[in-house]
């Protein structure tokens, strides 16, 4: 049963991180078009919160490498999101954090498949 629960959180994390990364890469291009769209950093906060929930459930049962990748990636995402909310400064750390989250969840998912 624990393996299924961990797999669920890995799939949730992979999905959330992938959607977040796509959002971070595509949305700035959409704001250039005259569609009346503007960037809302609270969407980034929503994705970061989902990711934080998923990694808290996973790091207790994963190896040190996966835990390290996930914690560092989440820290990069939160630093980027909070700097945009508080200081109105956009940092590119969020892209590296998103890629790290996907990689960490994939590694954890594959290690539980064995």
Structure description:
Helix content is 82%, strand content 0%. It is mostly helical. It has one domain. Helix 1 packs antiparallel against helix 4 and helix 2 runs antiparallel to helix 3 (64-87). It is elongated. The two termini are 15 Å apart. The model has no long low-confidence stretch (mean pLDDT 82).
User: Using DSSP, what is the number of strands?
Assistant: 0
Relative strand content: under 5%
Uncertain residue ranges: none
What sequence of helices (H) and strands (E) makes up the elements?
A: HHHH
Mean pLDDT: 82
The first-to-last residue Cα distance is 15 Å
- Please identify the structural class as seen in this structure: mainly alpha
Radius of gyration: 15 Å
Please describe the biggest sheet, giving its number of strands, its sense, and whether it closes into a barrel: none
Globally, the shape reads elongated
Instruction: Count up the helices.
Output: 4
How many separate domains? 1
Helical content (DSSP H or I, runs of 4+) = over 70%
Organism: Flavobacterium hibernum
Keywords: Membrane, Transmembrane, Transmembrane helix
Pfam families: MerC
Transmembrane segments: 12-36, 42-59, 64-87, 93-109
Key terms for this structure?
about 110 residues, mainly alpha
Summary of the model, kept short:
It is built from 4 helices and no strands. By secondary structure, it is mostly helical.
